Amino acid sequence: MQGTHEYSDGELKAHILYKLARKNRWGGKHTELIHVRSALPKEHRREAEKLAKELADSGFLTWLMKTGQIHVSLQPSREIVEFVEKYLGRQYW
User: Fold this and answer.
1) CA-to-CA distance for 2 and 47, rounded, in angstroms?
2) d(CA 71, CA 87)
3) What confidence score (pLDDT) does residue 40 get?
4) Is 2 exposed, middle or buried (0-12, 13-18, 19+ CB in 10 A)?
5) Low-confidence ranges of the chain (pLDDT < 50)
6) pLDDT at 90
7) Among 24, 14, 21, 19, CA closest to 34
């Protein structure tokens, strides 16, 4: 039987940041929040909006209303790389 991993909010936020960085969503390039949800394990996808809002409040993301949907993009910052490495490890870059 496979054990389940309990993810911290920091790990989940790092997954969101990593996915956006991998998809090159920096500055003016943004994506709908619904696409960010897929960065998270299925049992945590409902938390995506709350976590993304916290990341926006921390200055990591830009939060926009476009075409009736929430869109997000990464703020250009070295701190994003450091945050991902702290929670997910260097192997992700």
Assistant:
1) 24
2) 24
3) 92
4) exposed
5) 1-3
6) 78
7) 19
Distances (CA, A) of 13 to 1, 26, 47, 83, 84: 28, 16, 10, 9, 8
**Which pLDDT does position 6 carry in this prediction?**
86
What percentage of the chain has pLDDT greater than the value 70?
A: 94
pTM across the whole model: 0.88
In 3-state terms, what secondary structure has residue 48? Answer: helix
Query: What is the predicted pLDDT for the residue at 92?
Result: 66
* Token digits of residue 81: 């790389």
The domain ranges of the chain are 9-85
Among 4.10.1110.10, 1.10.3810.10, 3.40.228.10, 1.10.10.10, name the CATH number for the domain at 9-85.
1.10.10.10
CA distances from 60 to 4, 13, 73 (A): 28, 10, 9
d(CA 75, CA 57): 12
